[in-house]
Amino acid sequence: MDMCGAALMLTALSQAPVSVVQPIAGCGLAILCVFSHFYLKEVMNGLDWIAITLAGLGTIGVGVGGEEQKVDQIPLLNIPWLVLSIVILFVGTAQHLASYV
């Protein structure tokens, strides 16, 4: 699931500016916090709720204040190579750490 999310993130980055995509990714963490509070019954303090609210408002602000830009698109054939490189990097790092331990 994480690799599918990374592939979707790369697709989003190829179609939108980083200044728009990255705050939305941060808002995903805020949504995860709300989910874990209500579904997993985790306790959050007031500072956590303030941070979640600010992340949501910041994402809405970026969406409202952003303007459409014409950007060159990354060829779709480059995305699988990038995903494969990331997989090899993570698998290699995990194998190296496992042999080290």
UniProtKB/TrEMBL annotation:
Gene3D superfamilies: 1.10.3730.20. The chain crosses the membrane at residues 47-64, 76-98. Keywords: Cell membrane, Endosome, Ion transport, Magnesium, Membrane, Transmembrane, Transmembrane helix, Transport. The keyword Phosphoprotein does not apply. Signal peptide: none annotated. It is a multi-pass membrane protein. It comes from the Eukaryota. The keyword Magnesium applies. InterPro entries: EmrE-like, Mg_trans_NIPA. GO terms for cellular component: early endosome; plasma membrane. It is found in: Cell membrane; Early endosome; Membrane. One of its GO terms (molecular function) is magnesium ion transmembrane transporter activity. Its main location: membrane. Belongs to the NIPA (TC 2.A.7) family. Acts as a Mg(2+) transporter. Can also transport other divalent cations such as Fe(2+), Sr(2+), Ba(2+), Mn(2+) and Co(2+) but to a much less extent than Mg(2+). Homodimer. This is Probable magnesium transporter. It comes from Zea mays (Maize).
